[in-house]
Write the structure tokens for this entry.
Amino acid sequence: MSVIAVAGDGDCYGEGGNHLIHAMRRNVNVNLFVHDNQIYGLTKGQASPTSMEGIKTKNQPSGVFSGQLNPMALAVALDCSFVARGFAGDAEHLKGLIKDALNHKGFSLVDILQPCVTFNKINTYEWYSRRVFHIEPEYDPEDRIRAFERALEWGDRIPIGVIYRHHRPIYEERIPVIRNSPLVKQPFDVSRLEITLQEFY
């Protein structure tokens, strides 16, 4: 079964950060697409973990003091088995990344840069368009050291494409009881519970 999760930069990299870290670490077979507009775009426009340091928002009128979270570098550090970044303004390229993620066995993270036209007046469509560039075809995403270098690129030039890929066993394959089939498809013998149930009588 293909499992797709869709999130934003606030709920995924903020409140859901702990779940994200362990999903990547365990390499569960899930595709996660994060709509990253560098702000809480569906609430009141407060700063998210990916908001750039210094940016002013409604409830940070003096600017954001926290350093900007780099989800790509975090994912490479945790050996996430598929790490990519796309741009909503480049639909064809993004479509290819989504297909690659869906065809990957293991946890895949696709960070999608997209403008928030309501609250983020800095990271606009024009801002992204001047900076994003396609990772060159000869780039090897299985070179982890190079992937770190690519993941750290941010500013005047922002790479989009597959940043890191590592084919490794998925979480489900490492658990003996579900390696061959999910629990719901395995035979269930109620008599095996009789001894345990007797303890409650």
User: Anything to note?
Assistant: The chain has one domain: 4-198. DSSP finds seven helices and six strands in the chain.
